[in-house]
């Protein structure tokens, strides 16, 4: 299993950040690896979607947990491999801490480690961009 967690704190509001999370058409503004996102359904646990990446790949996902203005989790199944992305918001006065987590299960250790390192390389930058928007 591969596990990763990163937190960033900035002066913003939970509502402003949630607006960027819950509108998948804005994901490319804070994650520069995404070209576009198609969501089939409302932004809740009934939705499935596809992230269309700049490299031409398409990554299907499902929203598996969603608590408005607090957190959401997506899961992508790639054969035997399951990639889970967690996104959490915590307000601290006039700042908000964002925590993103990634877990990868189902592959061999070397495969999951390589995939995980590639996936998480840009996460701190994406989170900083999200706070700055």
The helix-strand sequence is: EHHEEEEEEHH
What distance separates the N and C termini? 33 Å
Q: Approximately how much beta-strand content do the residues carry?
A: over 45%
Averaged pLDDT, please? 95
Number of strands: 7
Helix content: 25-40%
The whole-angstrom Rg is 14 Å
The shape is globular
Largest β-sheet summary: 7 strands, antiparallel
Number of helices: 4
Low-confidence runs of at least 5 consecutive residues = none
Write the layout of secondary structure elements.
Elements (H helix, E strand, L loop, with lengths): L1 E9 L3 H9 L4 H4 L3 E7 L7 E6 L4 E10 L3 E8 L2 E12 L2 E11 L3 H12 L2 H10 L1
Antiparallel strand pairs: 1-7, 2-3, 3-4, 4-5, 5-6, 6-7
Descriptive report:
The structure is a single chain. The chain has 133 residues and is α+β, with helices and mostly antiparallel strands. Helices cover 26% and strands 47% of the residues. It contains four helices and seven strands, in the order E-H-H-E-E-E-E-E-E-H-H. The chain has helices spanning 14-22, 27-30, 109-120, 123-132; strands at residues 2-10, 34-40, 48-53, 58-67, 71-78, 81-92, 95-105. The protein has a seven-stranded antiparallel sheet with strand order 1-7-6-5-4-3-2, covered by helices on one side. Strand 2 and strand 3 (48-53) form a beta hairpin. The model has no long low-confidence stretch (mean pLDDT 95).
Offer a quick outline of the entry.
With 133 residues, the chain is α+β, with helices and mostly antiparallel strands.
